[in-house]
Amino acid sequence: MTTAPPAPSPPAPVVDRRLITLDADGIPLSARLALPTHVPPRAMVVALHGAGMSAAYFDGPAHPETSLLALAAELGFAAVAVDRPGYGASAGQLPYGQGVADQAATLSAALRGLSAYGATGAGIFLVGHSFGSKPALRMAADGKVPGLLGLDISGCGDEYLVPPTAPGTRAGSWKLNWGPLRLYPPGTFQAGLAVVTPPPERELADAARWPEEFAALAGRVRVPVRFTFAEHEAWWRRDAPALARLRNRLDAAPRVRIDHQPDAGHNISLGWAARSYHLRALGFAEECLRRRPGGEGRRP
């Protein structure tokens, strides 16, 4: 009598995912971490969500293919999505949130403890969406993130098409934030209950000052920056003259790239276009890695 060979063991997962809390000089920031298990991390991707969202925005709440964290770890990056100050674990301590400058300082302090959760590789690559792009750009301008490789920005420019103080926009509107329903996987808006959260007052009040704040900080950004505007982006000007001004203000950045994402609304990372966008963002991170001083493939 012969016995059947044992069933093969399932392959080991290539991604280690967990919930963590970062310490920002006494302020707790909850976060979602994904680490590759098949290779040492190439770099650490740090993702900052927009107003009225949470870190779950980057973790595929409605469909696994929309998760930036999972994709980044599969491609060999460590990745963490942080609940910005005023959200998640810090909401009790910061019930009114923080403005852009204070958020940048708090987040910079939190990132200093990232190495305790795994190797950060060659450095940190910031991914910002909507309001989360603002402290990301401020952190780059202030130079308080050691080993910062570059920035990938979506849903944020420097000239509003619709001012955040306009009637009906204080908490955003469906058209401004989402666009056509067909852009999103089924169940997105049911799953969105775990992602959407009221935005803190201070960041809403700070939003109207962004064009002036960006103009003041843009010339101090000295790392590569990529901007992505969705096909159905309704918050920001993205005509040729406006984008030329945006690029020109970042005159100290070694590279500024401006891309457009088809079949996407403002909340790119929740829609069907998320994987395409995330692959491009991680591709830009790869370029920043190779062109950094001492990096492989660095151009003279």
Notes on the structure:
Helix 2 crosses helix 3. The protein is α/β, with parallel strands linked by helices and 300 residues long. The protein has helices at residues 68-74, 100-111, 133-142, 174-177, 188-191, 201-207, 210-217, 240-249, 274-291, and strands at 15-24, 27-36, 44-48, 78-82, 124-129, 148-154, 225-230, 256-261. The protein has an 8-stranded mixed beta sheet with strand order 1-2-4-3-5-6-7-8, sandwiched between helices. Helices cover 27% and strands 18% of the residues.
What distinguishing features does this structure have?
single chain, 300 residues, alpha/beta, eight-stranded mixed β-sheet, 9 helices, disordered C terminus
Outline of the structure:
The protein is α/β, with parallel strands linked by helices and 300 residues long.
Q: What best-fitting shape do the alpha-carbon axes yield?
A: globular
**Largest beta-sheet details:** 8 strands, mixed
Alpha-beta content class:
alpha/beta
Number of helices: 9
Give the helices and strands as they follow along the chain.
EEEHEHEHEHHHHEHEH
Per DSSP E runs of 2 or more residues, the count of β-strands stands at: 8
In the sheet with the most strands, the strands line up as 1-2-4-3-5-6-7-8
Strand content: 15-25%
